[in-house]
Amino acid sequence: MFRGIFKVTLRIALRLSLVAGLFATGLLSLQGGAQQAGPMKPPPAAPPTSDNGAASQTPQMKTQVPTEGSPPPAAHGTSSSPISTAPPSIPADQIIQKFAAREAEFKKERDNYTYTQNFLIETLDESDRPDGEYRMTSEIVFTPEGRRYEHVTFAPPPTLSRIMLSPEDMQDLENIQPFVLTTEQLPKYDIKYVGQQKIDEINAYIFDVGPKKIEKNQRYFQGRVWVEDKDLEIVKTYGKAVPDIKKGGNENVFPLFETFRENIEGDYWFPTYTRADDVLHFSSGAVHIRMSVRYSNYKRFGVTIKIRAAQDH
Q1: Among 99, 187, 231, 265, which is least packed, fewest CB within 10 Å?
Q2: Residue 124 — φ and ψ, nearest 5°?
Q3: What is the pLDDT of residue 14?
């Protein structure tokens, strides 16, 4: 019964993706110029896991929200300094306004780009060996007339049996995991300056971000963002999509994730890697999930730009 539900749900989600251009219209339709790899390395290692959660009749993704005072550790493959709580050189409110304006520019330009997207989610057994997966490779491309759409190039039959993907999961892939915080979105969020940190060669301001209120049928980001101190653009996010959705005996909840960006020629930073690793707790038992989304081969419409995809070790 559960397998049948998963396949129907996933089929509906994929149909929505193909018809409406789910990934193509928002997930990472990006902008910029010729590619220049940034100093931040999108590492393959898993982020910290959370084992807090509530029971569910229909298992979905589950984790706890990151809380103030409990920042994520530095990702494997990067070096980072301790967080300095010294005040910034200009008021934090001005930094917020400036980086939101830069993100707005980024969003306006991002529809000029196509890219390759590799999505994988898998469940792991008690020995942390994969026992089910769903994967899909897509090319987000243009027609000769300039219409953008998703072309699925690889999608083997899924073998997941212990979790489901919901339309909200697919929506979060589009908008929340490659989070862009623009001037238009600022009124929706509470944003608090945390401090400054050096990650690899990047000096970044850190802000905690969360929705001021939850509106029906809207999805939000809650967590932490790192803003590069020169270009004033988000270079890393760590958090989760909210709200969790609980209806009747079903629970639809969502994992912690990290998204890394790399610099593309000029000032713009493109998401290149998202990862999540979590132990999910349901009434039927705990489920360890791992997810990755890799974005590569960025191309401005008519111009080829390539980014090396992060490699597993």
Answers
A1: 187
A2: -120, 140
A3: 39
Amino acid identity, position 52: N
Per-residue pLDDT, 78: 60
What CA–CA distance (Å, rounded) separates 193 from 93? 9
Query: Do 175 and 184 touch, CB atoms closer than 8 A?
Result: no
3-state DSSP call for residue 128?
A: coil
Q: Where in the chain are the domains? A: 2-304
Residue 80, helix vs strand vs coil? strand
d(C-alpha 308, C-alpha 304), whole Å = 13
Give the integer Cα–Cα distance in Å for 103 and 232.
8
What distances in angstroms separate CA 253 from CA 53, 60, 118, 208, 295, one per listed residue? 9, 6, 23, 21, 24
Alpha helices in the chain (DSSP H): 2-20, 92-109, 167-175
Helix, strand or coil for residue 126?
Answer: coil
- Cα–Cα distance measured from residue 132 to residue 71, given in angstroms and rounded to the nearest whole number: 31
State residue 303's pLDDT score. 53
